[in-house]
Design brief:
Length: 333
C-alpha cells in the first residue's frame, strides 16, 4: 500500500545490518532521517508516531508533565534563552505534581511549590511565572477555564544593598592603577559591564577607530550593545589589546579567565586597598554616576543594556553613537 503524500519513506539499505530500514520524513527537498528499524513494519510504526498530531490531546487526563512537555515544544522556544533556562529549571520544583491531571491542579498546589522551595526570591518568581505560562497554555487548549496561577504569590524583590564606590575610592584606584587587576576594576566602573560581559569581550569586539565596544549578555536589550570607550580608560583598553595572547581583552596567563577565578583576585584587590565592594557594585556605580551627571535616561538604559520605552528599535545610527559618547563622557572623575 502506498503511503499518503508527504508521509515519509521506509527504505531498505544494502548490506548486512541489524536495522536495515532507514526511515525518513516526508518533506520535499533534503529529507530528515528519523531513525532506523529492524523491519518495514517497525519503520512504518515509527513514521506513524512521527506524523501523529501533537495537538491531539486528552484534555481531561493530560498531566502536568505532559502539558509541560508540550509547552516546551510549542511555546517555550519563543522565549529568550535566559528565560527558557529559568522556567525549565523552575519545573524541577513542581515535579511532585507531575502525574496530577492538570485540570485538577489548584492554586494551593501551585502555592505549595513556591512556599516549599528553599531557594532565592528569584527562583520563587520563576516558579510563579512558569505556572502562569502553563495556565495560559492550558486555557488556550481548553484544558481549564480558570487560571489559578493568578491567585498565587511569591516574595517581592528585596531592596538592593549594593553600595556604590565613592569618588575617593575611585581616585584611590587611579592612584594604584599599577597594581594587578586595578585596570579591570576601572574598566567596570567606566563601562557598566557585568563581570561575565567583561570577561567575554574579545579583541575583535573592540573598534579603536571609533573607540567603541560591542558586548553584553543576559537580555535581548543587553546583547551586542554598543558601549563607547570612555577617554579615561582608553589607555587601559589599548594596553590590554597589545598584551593579549588569547584574543580576550582580559585574560590570565594567556588564557580566558573564569568568573570564579576573577572573583578571587577581585577580593584580594579589595582587601589590599581596604575596600569592601563586589564587582557588580561597579556597575551600580556607573549608572549612579551617569544619573548624577545628568545623562539622558534613554542613553543610560542603552549603555546598561536595559530595555527602555524610549529606544524604539535597537538600531544604532551615527547620531545614537555620538549621543552615547557625549553622555558617557559626562563622568569626569
Amino acid at each position: 500500500m502506498k503511503n499518503p503524500n508527504h508521509f515519509g519513506t521506509v527504505t531498505k539499505l544494502k548490506g548486512n545490518r541489524r536495522n536495515p530500514f532507514i526511515v525518513k520524513e516526508g518533506n520535499s527537498g533534503l529529507q530528515k532521517v528519523i531513525g532506523y528499524a529492524a523491519s518495514r513494519e517497525a519503520g512504518l510504526i515509527m513514521l506513524a508516531n512521527y506524523n501523529s498530531d501533537p495537538w491531539d490531546i486528552d484534555k481531561s487526563n493530560i498531566t502536568l508533565q505532559q502539558l509541560f512537555d508540550l509547552w516546551k515544544e510549542k511555546r517555550c522556544l519563543k522565549l529568550n534563552k535566559s528565560n527558557q533556562a529559568s522556567l525549565r529549571s523552575a519545573y524541577n520544583h513542581c515535579i511532585s505534581y507531575s502525574k496530577f491531571k492538570y485540570r485538577n491542579i489548584k492554586s494551593y498546589h501551585m502555592q505549595d511549590t513556591i512556599d516549599s522551595c528553599k531557594c532565592s526570591y528569584a527562583t520563587k518568581g520563576h516558579i510563579k511565572s512558569l505556572w502562569s505560562h502553563l495556565d495560559k497554555f492550558a486555557m488556550e487548549l481548553d484544558i481549564i477555564n480558570k487560571c489559578y496561577s493568578s491567585l498565587i504569590t511569591s516574595e517581592s524583590v528585596p531592596e538592593t544593598n549594593k553600595i556604590p564606590f565613592t569618588d575617593t575610592e575611585v581616585n584611590l584606584l587611579w592612584e594604584n592603577n599599577k597594581l594587578p587587576w586595578v585596570s579591570s576594576a576601572l574598566f567596570l566602573l567606566y563601562t557598566g559591564f557585568r563581570i561575565s560581559e567583561m570577561l567575554e569581550l574579545k579583541i575583535s569586539d573592540i573598534d579603536l577607530t571609533n573607540n567603541t565596544m560591542i558586548g553584553g549578555t543576559k537580555t535581548d536589550a543587553g546583547k551586542n550593545r554598543i558601549v563607547p570607550i570612555h577617554s579615561k580608560i582608553l589607555n587601559i583598553v589599548q594596553s590590554q589589546i597589545q598584551n593579549s595572547k588569547s584574543g580576550y581583552l582580559f585574560e590570565w596567563r594567556g588564557k580566558r579567565i573564569l568568573i570564579s577565578t576573577y572573583r578571587i583576585y577581585w577580593n584580594l584587590l579589595m582587601k589590599q586597598l581596604n575596600m569592601d565592594h563586589t564587582p557588580h557594585e561597579a556597575r551600580h556605580t556607573f549608572r549612579s554616576r551617569l544619573d548624577s551627571a545628568g545623562a539622558n535616561k534613554v542613553c543610560i538604559d542603552r549603555l546598561m543594556g536595559h530595555k527602555s520605552e524610549g529606544t524604539g528599535e535597537r538600531v544604532y545610527t551615527h547620531k545614537n553613537i555620538d549621543e552615547l559618547k557625549m553622555n558617557i563622557e559626562l563622568i569626569t572623575n
